[in-house]
């Protein structure tokens, strides 16, 4: 991929809750020479967003694209170096864009917390993306980034201190507020699939579900998330419970670990 592409970044789903936050951030912090465009199903809604935000956002070109029209996604991917997408539920709307980016050699990032979508994306497009130089990066939101990065940093620090390799790690976090409509729709969609499909349940409850080589991983045994419980953690003297996204975060951390340290390495994280 070269700099000859029209844009550096296209934000797809710019008018959604998280999409608007991304646009605000880019308008405030992106380098002045960054070529940024905003995309969504409705050109009028994207233009209304730009008018509401004002300032630099007004200069971002508008692109109309719809996951129900794959040709619009192909055109979108071919115009930019990077696509940031907030359009979920990803299991319903995400695969055509992943395919378009993998085919075009365009880097891709999303916010998904849907293990079945990520597994399908890997199975169908990992080799294609590698061959075309595209980086497909899922789960770039609060769901997994703290668990994934904190585990990596803890493992690096333990190694640097001569304390050996990290085994299990627990991340404690507190949160307030609610969930966006897209998050709720994604969770509902996956729950509906699990009720219908026993094979899907097996994937979702497998802590190594996203491993690059599942056969090389150890037997994870029964998932700790099958019977979640509230308990007193005496180390921090606080009542804790599994984070609602813990069962997704652990496969993400294990995939990152296997990709960097080998498939039999043991590090994992449980977010609480």
User: What is the top-level CATH class of the largest domain?
Assistant: Alpha Beta
Side-by-side strand order of the widest sheet: 3-2-1-4-5-6
**Strands, total number:** 10
Tell me about the biggest sheet? 6 strands, parallel
Q: What is the CATH third-level topology name of the largest domain?
A: Rossmann fold
How many structural domains?
A: 2
Task: Tell me what the CATH architecture of the largest domain is.
Answer: 3-Layer(aba) Sandwich
Mean pLDDT over all positions:
87
- Contiguous low-pLDDT stretches (5 residues minimum) are 262-272
**Mass-distribution shape:** globular
Helix content: 40-55%
Task: Tell me the CATH superfamily of the largest domain.
Answer: NAD(P)-binding Rossmann-like Domain
Report how far apart the termini are: 40 Å
Name the beta content range: 5-15%
**Helix-strand pattern:** EHEHEHEHHEHEHEHHEEHE
Pfam family, one: Sacchrp_dh_NADP
Protein name: Saccharopine dehydrogenase NADP binding domain-containing protein
Domain Saccharopine dehydrogenase NADP binding: 9-136
InterPro entries: NAD(P)-bd_dom_sf, Saccharopine_DH-like_oxidrdct, Sacchrp_dh_NADP-bd
Compact summary:
The chain is of the alpha/beta class and 272 residues long.
